[in-house]
């Protein structure tokens, strides 16, 4: 099950554990096309990760703080620190799942902590 984040809740939602952040927009066709697969991955890995969804137009500050340049964006985080990011309209469900698996196996973090 996914949790919708806002500027006010984002930091608390990502501060503990393994998290997949799905940053999407209602006019982003690749975002909408991948959404069912991302939700399915969230359910498949529900015991191990938290799926957080961020509606980009409604939460521009989060996007700015994460230094996002485009959508869709999928960010894996551990204890509030970014581990990996996928930011291509050619991202596949398989690539997202591989990022989740790397996160769960202990991939080193990229060291970015959001300001949101």
Report on the structure:
With 116 residues, the protein is an alpha/beta fold. The chain has a single domain (2-104), classed as Glutaredoxin (3-Layer(aba) Sandwich), CATH 3.40.30.10. The chain contains four helices and five strands; from the N terminus they run βαβαβαββα. A five-stranded mixed sheet has the order 1-3-2-4-5. It is globular. The model has no long low-confidence stretch (mean pLDDT 94).
Element string (H = helix, E = strand): EHEHEHEEH
- Global morphology: globular
The CATH homologous superfamily is named Glutaredoxin
Low-confidence stretches: none
Task: Record the strand order, biggest sheet.
Answer: 1-3-2-4-5
Helices, by number, come to 4
TL;DR of this structure?
The chain has helices at residues 10-14, 29-44, 60-65, 93-104; strands spanning 2-4, 18-24, 50-55, 73-78, 81-86.
Keywords:
4 helices; Glutaredoxin; 116 residues
